[in-house]
């Protein structure tokens, strides 16, 4: 039973970054901008968040106020993600650049920048920022006694502040997208920007909003990923930004579908990462390096899923096309 | 006349991108460590020409970069973004090494195998795009990871491929070619004597340049190349003109894959470097993107842009330990970022050239 509780808990913690980043991609694409830079934004968010946690750890503020420190780190990750995403927004919206290439540039920039900065701060060759252990939500956080049962494992073994925040942001995303005027306008800009413009919506501003919100979410998602993996931040988020894009496509650009697909992907990720300690997985006798086999799984599943969903996927119609007021 | 002008505008915009990238890099160095910034920058820019060994290293690294750049550029010309050069490169290297170490084939046969391997990996993004309408960017990225893990898995289960089989202690890399099969090492063609016994140099740079010229011929001088580029300009229009767009997408990706695969082959068959079982994707394929963008996807331009990227990379690794060699990637990313709005810069340059030309004409009239 405890294995099951572990798997459920780990799946949740791995689903959180996927969910947040895929929601970010959703905002951006509904506004009409393909955000290939999600991976890079995650790296920047994680970098800034981790540095803040590290400084809190050194100053002693963190151990005494763990959850407040964590909240501040999340805010910093979000803001840094927003700032970094402005680079994409500027290129894609003002300069009408090729969005895929602009995103690729940011994806190459972010990890290189993270390594250079980490070197500069921690000294030569120190490429990993350690994550302090006090950020975890335990029973002691609520003043409860420490127990070892099924639910204790599920709720208090691997959970962090990022999980409840993700729940809030998910509900907010659904409300914003479908229950507000802003959401309707945002979607209009991704479907038919000319029509949106003709009724007085500022397409450029809406697209900026879409990209910056995606930066906000991807920044938090970057920090959430580093925490989920738990071995410190070494300038990479392991292709999670791209997986999140696949989650978004599989989720058909809709919040609830994205939630579901984030969990499916997270489950495969957990199987890949912990295959040796999960008892009921098939063991291939005589095959060396089985973990590589399991690590391929999430990507292969992505491809199979995309084959079946892409034909009738409902991508925003105007995504990837720079909006030009003159070409109405 | 007009075509010449276009070429000139392209070259000028690339040079501006490079200049801005380098200035940005210098500012970054100044912020990080003002005392050593000047030294770092001069190391970066001068190392490749400081001695024949480093110069040989630059040429050696430029060859696979050129192949990856050609691969990305070729796909660009057909309207596809091949971000999967890295995976194709990895599979190409794997095929070449199996040919060399496992099958004991001579070097040229191994290079053909590497093309085959890369082409197989290129089929997937093409087929998925043509048949199922899956965006090739996502497919390529997924197949980068699948390719890397697959090669790790296969190599781990092929003990005769690993260096441990030849009595060397490590199991995390393939056997040295000098132990396993010296005939698979790409010949040096006497170049090592010219280059002061540089361990890097071999004829791979000539192979890469020859392939670049062949690609130029295919794209610009054959009907096949014309059809591919027509597809890239406007898929619907080319379909209307009777060109089979789906077939061209798949073919273009196969060729792009073969080019990247050959890059992997020539890099690992030099005999100086062994394939290490990695946990992260090889960067060479990604470096093909700036190479292609700087060259405007023109095959002959790729020769020069690959030499440039290789040049600053060689300088970058000499900057350690004062600065991380990743500084180079920051410079490259700035160059790509500028290339993303190349259209805008080109428009401005073209206008500038036009007005300069008009002024000259006026002067002539006055005189």
Please mark out the parts of chain A with pLDDT under 50 across 5 or more consecutive residues, or reply none. Answer: none
What count of helical segments of chain B does DSSP give? 16
CATH C-level of chain A: Mainly Alpha
The tally of strands of chain A reads 0
Please state the structural category of chain A: mainly alpha
Residue share in helix of chain A = 55-70%
CATH architecture of the domain at 52-294 in chain B: Orthogonal Bundle
Strand content of chain A: under 5%
Helix content of chain B: over 70%
Number of helices of chain A: 13
Rg of chain B, Cα atoms, Å:
22 Å
- Low-confidence parts of chain B: none
Largest interface: A-B, 46 and 47 residues
Task: Give the topology string of chain A: H per helix, E per strand.
Answer: HHHHHHHHHHHHH
Distance between the termini of chain A: 61 Å
- Radius of gyration of chain A from the CA trace? 20 Å
Largest sheet of chain B: none
List keywords for this structure.
heterodimer, A: about 325 residues, mainly alpha, ABC transporter involved in vitamin B12 uptake, BtuC, 13 helices, B: about 375 residues, 16 helices, about 75% helix, about 0% strand
Describe the structure.
The complex is a heterodimer of chains A (328) and B (367). Chain A is 70% helix and 0% strand. Chain A has 328 residues and is mainly alpha-helical. Chain A has a single domain (2-315), classed as Orthogonal Bundle (ABC transporter involved in vitamin B12 uptake, BtuC), CATH 1.10.3470. In chain A, helix 2 (38-59) crosses helix 11 (240-250). Chain A starts with a helix and ends in an 18-residue tail after the last helix. Chain B starts with a helix and ends with a helix. Chain B has a domain at 52-294: Orthogonal Bundle (ABC transporter involved in vitamin B12 uptake, BtuC). Chain B is mainly α. In chain B, 75% of the residues lie in helices and 0% in strands. The model of chain B has no long low-confidence stretch (mean pLDDT 86). In chain B, helix 3 (52-77) packs parallel to helix 9 (204-221) and helix 3 (52-77) packs antiparallel against helix 12 (245-268). Chain B has helices spanning 2-32, 34-50, 52-77, 85-102, 107-132, 136-156, 177-180, 191-194, 204-221, 223-233, 235-240, 245-268, 284-294, 299-318, 327-340, 342-366.
């Amino acid at each position: 039973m405890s294995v099951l509780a572990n798997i459920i808990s780990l799946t949740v913690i791995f689903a959180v970054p996927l969910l947040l980043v895929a929601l970010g991609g959703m905002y951006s694409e509904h506004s009409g901008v393909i955000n290939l830079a999600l991976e890079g934004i995650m790296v920047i968010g994680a970098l800034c968040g981790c540095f803040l946690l590290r400084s809190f750890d050194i100053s002693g503020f963190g151990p005494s106020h763990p959850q407040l420190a964590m909240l501040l780190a999340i805010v910093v990750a979000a803001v840094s993600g927003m700032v970094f995403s402005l680079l994409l927004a500027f290129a894609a919206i003002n300069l009408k650049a090729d969005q895929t290439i602009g995103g690729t540039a940011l994806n190459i920039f972010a990890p290189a920048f993270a390594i250079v900065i980490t070197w500069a701060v921690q000294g030569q060759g120190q490429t990993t920022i350690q994550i302090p252990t006090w950020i975890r939500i335990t029973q002691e956080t609520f003043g409860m006694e420490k127990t070892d049962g099924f639910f204790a494992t599920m709720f208090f073994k691997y959970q962090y502040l990022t999980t409840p925040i993700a729940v809030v942001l998910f509900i907010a995303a659904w409300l914003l997208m479908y229950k507000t005027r802003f959401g309707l306008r945002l979607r209009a800009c991704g479907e038919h920007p000319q029509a949106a413009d003709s009724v007085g919506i500022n397409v450029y501003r809406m697209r900026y909003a879409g990209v910056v919100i995606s930066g906000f979410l991807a920044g938090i998602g970057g920090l959430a990923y580093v925490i989920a993996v738990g071995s410190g931040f070494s300038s990479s988020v392991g292709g999670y930004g791209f997986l999140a894009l696949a989650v978004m496509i599989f989720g058909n650009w809709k919040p609830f579908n994205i939630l579901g697909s984030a969990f499916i992907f997270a489950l495969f990720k957990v199987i890949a990462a912990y295959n040796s300690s999960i008892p009921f997985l098939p063991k291939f006798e005589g095959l060396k390096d089985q973990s590589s086999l399991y690590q391929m799984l999430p990507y292969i599943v992505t491809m199979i899923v995309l084959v079946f969903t892409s034909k009738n996927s409902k991508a925003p119609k105007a995504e990837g096309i720079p909006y030009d007021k003159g070409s109405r | 006349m007009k075509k010449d002008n276009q070429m000139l505008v392209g070259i000028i915009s690339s040079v501006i991108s490079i200049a801005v990238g380098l200035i940005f890099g210098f500012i970054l160095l100044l912020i990080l460590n003002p005392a050593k910034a000047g030294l770092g920058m001069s190391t970066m820019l001068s190392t490749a020409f400081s001695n024949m060994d480093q110069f040989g290293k630059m040429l050696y690294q430029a060859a696979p970069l050129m192949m990856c750049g050609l691969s990305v550029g070729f796909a660009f010309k057909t309207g596809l973004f091949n971000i999967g050069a890295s995976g194709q490169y990895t599979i190409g290297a794997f095929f070449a090494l199996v040919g060399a170490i496992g099958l004991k084939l001579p070097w040229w046969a191994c290079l053909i195998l590497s093309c085959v391997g890369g082409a197989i990996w290129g089929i997937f993004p093409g087929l998925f795009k043509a048949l199922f309408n899956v965006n090739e960017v996502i497919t390529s990225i997924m197949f980068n990871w699948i390719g890397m893990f697959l090669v790790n898995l296969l190599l781990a289960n092929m003990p005769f491929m690993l260096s441990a089989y030849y009595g060397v202690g490590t199991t995390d890399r393939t056997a040295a070619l000098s132990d396993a099969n010296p005939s698979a090492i790409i010949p040096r063609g006497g170049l090592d004597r010219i280059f002061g016994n540089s361990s890097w140099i071999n004829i791979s740079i000539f192979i890469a340049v020859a392939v670049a010229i062949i690609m130029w011929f295919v794209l610009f001088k054959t009907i096949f190349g014309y059809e591919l580029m027509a597809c890239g300009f406007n898929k619907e229009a080319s379909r209307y003109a009777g060109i089979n767009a789906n077939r061209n997408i798949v073919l273009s990706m196969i060729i792009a894959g073969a080019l990247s695969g050959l890059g992997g082959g020539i890099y690992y068959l030099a005999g100086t470097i062994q394939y290490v079982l990695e946990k992260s994707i090889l960067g060479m394929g990604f470096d093909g993107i700036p190479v292609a963008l700087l060259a405007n996807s023109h095959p002959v331009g790729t020769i020069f842009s690959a030499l440039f990227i290789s040049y600053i990379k060689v300088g970058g690794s000499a900057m350690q330990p004062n600065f991380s060699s990743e500084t180079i990637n920051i410079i490259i990313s700035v160059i790509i970022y500028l290339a993303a709005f190349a259209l805008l810069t080109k428009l401005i340059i073209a206008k500038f050239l036009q007005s300069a030309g008009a002024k000259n004409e006026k002067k002539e009239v006055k005189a």
